[in-house]
Amino acid sequence: MSQVKIEVSATTAPVDLNELLEKTVESIADISEVKGDTHAILTSQQPSDTKALQVLKTAATEDVVRLEPVKISTFEGDYLKWVNVYEMFKTLVHKNKQLQDIQRMQYLVTSTNGEARRLIENLGVTGSNYQNAWKMLFERYNNKRTLPASHLQAFFSIPNVKSETA
């Protein structure tokens, strides 16, 4: 990885922040490599140009990688798929502090189908019903006896190999 170094000579002339910004932007190959340098510049200089300051602050704090939003799989009541759907929903929706319970309930309803949807469909899409709906699904599909039995059943229903393969 290459290091980007910005040298400012100690002269009596003031540092032109716009010129420094242009040189910095031209030489950046990867913003994550210069976050530390940019932070040092921000803390040691008092730029008069607020736009230049904002660009430097953004470069110092912005993550480089932009990922597509993760879609939650639709759960239809298959015990074999419960653990994956549960972990994904719990992480993206249930523990998301930016969401209100009514939003969580809407996500829960739209990410269920079949047997799982029938279990919660009589509950209205309200914030007060979210915790009950989540608990109903959790108690039904996180059953410590049914989950292993479903996996064993799936394992024993795999067809036998008839002949050897290379």
Anisotropy-based shape: flat
Order of helices and strands: HHHHHHHH
- Kindly name the structural category: mainly alpha
Gyration radius (Cα, Å) is: 27 Å
Beta-strand percent range: under 5%
Query: Based on DSSP secondary structure assignment, what is the total number of beta strands?
Result: 0
User: How far from one another are the termini?
Assistant: 45 Å
Question: How would you characterize the largest beta sheet?
Answer: none
Overall mean pLDDT stands at 73
Q: What count of domains describes the coordinates? A: 2
Q: Helical stretch count?
A: 8
Q: What key phrases describe this protein's structure?
A:
mainly alpha; flat
Description:
This protein is mainly alpha-helical. It has 2 domains: 17-61, no CATH class; 79-156, no CATH class. The chain has 8 helices and no strands. The chain is flat. Mean pLDDT is 73; it is low at 8-12 and 29-34.
Put the structure in a nutshell.
The protein is mainly α and 166 residues long. The chain has 8 helices and no strands. The longest helix is centred in the middle third of the chain and has 16 residues.
What's the topology here?
Blueprint: H1 17-27, H2 35-44, H3 50-61, H4 79-94, H5 101-110, H6 114-120, H7 127-141, H8 146-156
Helix pairs in contact: 2-3, 5-7
